[in-house]
Amino acid sequence: MPIRRLNSAPALVLLLLGCATSTVDYGQRCDVVLDSLQGAVVQPGQALNLVGGPLTKAYDTTVTIGDVDAPVADLQRTDCEACDSCRDDAGCTACSDCDSCDAECTDICVESVTVTVPDLPDGPAALVLFNAYGATQPQTVEVQGDGGASDTGTAEAAALPPAPAAGP
Length: 168
Fold this sequence. Notes:
Blueprint: H1 9-18, E1 33-34, E2 41-42, E3 47-53, E4 62-65, E5 68-70, E6 72-78, H2 81-90, H3 102-108, E7 110-116, E8 123-131, E9 134-135, E10 139-143
Parallel strand pairs: 2-10
Antiparallel strand pairs: 1-3, 3-7, 4-5, 4-8, 6-7, 8-9, 8-10
Helix pairs in contact: 2-3
C-alpha cells in the first residue's frame, strides 16, 4: 500500500497566522466626570440634565441608573469650538491635560447630556455615564415616585355603571 503525503503548506500558513498578534485601539480611556449628583432626588419619567465631560456624541453615550438604561434625549457641547481648536493646535486629546487650553475648555465650553429617568423602584440607585472616552464613577441618586406602579389597569367596581336588568 503506497504512502500518501499530504500537502502541509496550507496547514503551516494557518498555524503561523494563528500565532500573529495584533493590537486594536478601541478609543481613548480617561476620567469622564459629571458635576456632583450625590443625593439628588429623581423621579421616573423626569428629564435629567447632566453636566460634565469629556462627552462625545449621543449615539456613543449610555447612561444607566440602577443598572437600567436611561434613554439619551439630547447631548450638547455648547461653545466648545474654541476648546476643540486649541486642543487640535496644541496636539492634545480630549483625555489629556492641556494647560494651554484651560481657559477655553474649562471656562467657556459646557458639555451636557439629558436623559429620561427610567421606571425604577423607590430608593438609592447608582448613576453611571459611559462613552468612548471611558466612564464616570457611580453617583448615588435617590429615586422617588412610584414609577407608574400605581397604574394597575383595573377600575374600581363602584365606578362601573350598573349592569342592565334582565328582560321578563
